[in-house]
Amino acid sequence: MFLGTHTPRLDEKGRLFLPAKYRERMAGGLVVTRGQERSLFIYPMDEFVKVADQMRQAPTTSKAARDYMRVFLSGASDEIPDKQGRFTIPANLRQYAGLDREVTVIGAGSRLEVWDSAVWNAYLEQTEQSFADTAEEVIPGLF
To answer: Is 43 contained in some domain?
Structure first.
């Protein structure tokens, strides 16, 4: 499970150093793709296969499902981190997420998310109060 917040930097070649605690889990390969709110999602390869299998269950008669799968899968790039835990984020994905040097990597359960640090901080500031104010059950059975 991926947890926590980390602030690595992209190097001049667009490579990201995975946080040390996640390197072993990602050593066999990973997939980076477009996420929501202009973030990137990073899945270990086996987890991405599960997500892709779930997508294949969606009806192709649903325009929303087709649109989602096209955007999600067309941006996907499979990568293998080097011995130092670095991998290159393709230029089109860096552009999509507005990534420069300062990035924030958050653990989101089965995946990592990569955000431009300024965008992440603004998002967090915007959503923290609604998180604190949530009175109804957002995730069934959790509270």
So the answer is: yes
Instruction: Give the single-character DSSP code of 90.
Output: P
Domain around 126? 5-133
Residue-wise pLDDT for 16-41, tens only, equals 999 999 999 999 999 999 999 999 99
Tokens 């926590």 identify what position?
A: 4
Q: Which amino acid is at 40?
A: L
3-state class of 53 per DSSP? helix
Retrieve residue 27's tokens. 């050593």
Cα four-point dihedral sign 110, 115, 121, 127: negative
Indicate the helix (H) or strand (E) that contains 32. strand 30-34
pTM higher than 0.85, yes or no?
yes
Distance CA 137, CA 121 (A): 25
Quick check: is 140 in a domain? no
Q: Select from 114, 52, 72, 121 the least CA-distant residue to 89.
A: 114
